[in-house]
Every structure is written in C-alpha cells, then in structure tokens.
Amino acid sequence: MTPKFLKPNSFPYYQGSTPNLNMSTKDKISMIGLIKQRYNFMKFAKIKSTSEWLYRELSNIDDGNSETPWQGDRLWWYNHKSESLTIDLSTNKNINSVVWQNWHLILSPIGYNIEVSNDNKNWKIVKIVDNGEQKKDAFWTVDNFPTVNARWVKINYTKTISDDSPAISEIYIANISDLTLNANLLQDFEQNPFYYVIDENEWNQLTSAITDIGTVEIGWNSDKEGNLNNKTKSEVKFNSIGQYSIVIPPGGTKINSLTIRLYYPSTVKISDIETENLTFSEIKKMNLIKNIKISLTPQ
C-alpha cells in the first residue's frame, strides 16, 4: 500500500465544518512534534497495573480508542483502596508530564501521586494530586512536574469521585516544552491536522512534518448478522511503499468487504491483499486470549 498526499487545487483549504483560524503554522508543527514524541516514547513502552477488571483490561489503555478503558479490579479496590499503573519506557528519557484521558466522570481519579525511577526500585515522588477535579468523559489531563531523567513512571491511585476503582481510556508520558498545552485540542488536531491550511507554504510544511505519523482507518463487513461497523486504525508512512497488517477479531466466517479511510487529503494505491490465520503463539502474544480459572466446590 502506498499512501500519497493529494495537494488541493486552491488555498485556503478547508477540511471540516469548524476550522480554527487562530492556530499558527508554528503551533501546528509543534503539535506534530509532540505527536511524534509520543510515538517514540511509547513505541517500546510496557505498562503494568496492580489489577484489571473484566472487559476493561490493561491492553485497552494504549489502543488509541477512547471508548475502551482500563479499570482496576473493583473487588481489589474495595479491599485495598489503592491501584497503580507502572510504565517502563525501555530507556531513560527526559520527561515532565503524564498525559491521560479520563473514561467516565464517576470513575475520575481525584487522588493520586506520580513517582519516577531509574531502576524500578528506588522511587521519587514528583507530583501529588489531592482532591482533584472531576473530569468529563473522554477529557484529557496533562499532569506536569519538574523535568527529570527516568525510565519508569508509576501512578498510584488512592481516590476516585465515586469511590469505585479508577478507569483510564489512554495514557502516555511526554516531555512538553509548552506547559500550557491543551491536550484536548491536540486530540482534535491529530484527528484532522488539515482542517484549515492557509496557503501552499503551510501545506508543504505540514505534509513534510507529518509524513511518518499518518493514520489509516480500515473497516470491514463480515457475514455475521449485525456485524457491519467493524474498524481498526493503523499508522502509515506517506509517499513510500509499505506493508501493513491488522488483526480482525472473531465474527463470522467470511469478510465481505474492506473500506480504507485516510484522515488526510490523499490517495492510496493497494498492490495486493493477503489473509492468513494466526498461530496459537501469535494469538497469545497479542493478548487476544485470557487464562480462565474456575473454582468448583463439590456439593
């Protein structure tokens, strides 16, 4: 598959109904830089939690979908009133922010602290939040702290709005130069960075900066009744030939159609499509199966 940008015939160029005319080209390039940084920071990161709740597993917390959260085990929370997320960045990095997206307003974390470490043994608290504000559904929060060089980041949760276990849709670690960054605006920009392009010069700067962090949405229909709106996202590189793989979850026995949506003004050339069944080891590695333990009591 070879995605290519499709240059508009005229400028200013609009893509969307509500363009933000106040964002400068410099601000847009800065946002693209932060998006790239997030990819680089989290690409090899590993995230662990004290616990997880059924159907709200830890794998949801970095899947790019605000509707699929991680939530701590509610029984564990009831007994311990504590939960934690530990993020291993794989190497030491200069960091100053934990950026996270709330899932549901009644499960908003309002009491927690953030710790950092170089060895996963000795920890230093860099931020404490006590009786924080309730967050709206899908609201992004940027927790800033003084810049440190660290590999591990741990968030220890001790309180939520409803006193139920905390739930987070997405989370990542960053080193943000502009501490006034609006993470909610960043999300909107990432979904549609070409909503308003003032001239050809800005177009060239944006396409040059965003080449290797493009996003394509792939949807499919299967012969399973009611299974009509399946979709997943994949990162793509523009102006270069690439091979991309997606995992289609169980549902039916035949795929009737595929749709490909590019979020930017662009064209895509598809050379061929292949399908294959996953091996058991691949399924296990992708965390698509769970261990199920059942305790029986003879009567």
Please, could you describe this protein's structure?
With 299 residues, this protein is of the alpha+beta class. 17% of the residues lie in helices and 35% in strands. It contains 5 helices and 14 strands. The protein has helices at residues 25-42, 74-80, 183-191, 200-210, 280-285; strands spanning 2-5, 13-14, 46-49, 70-71, 83-102, 109-117, 124-129, 140-160, 167-174, 196-197, 214-222, 230-236, 255-262, 266-269. Strand 6 and strand 7 (124-129) form a beta hairpin. The termini are far apart.
Short characterization:
This protein has 299 residues and is an alpha+beta fold. Helix content is 17%, strand content 35%.
Oligomeric state as shown: single chain
Question: How many angstroms separate the termini?
Answer: 60 Å
| CATH architecture level-2 label of the largest domain | Sandwich
The CATH superfamily of the largest domain turns out to be: Galactose-binding domain-like
Major β-sheet profile:
7 strands, antiparallel
The dominant shape is: globular
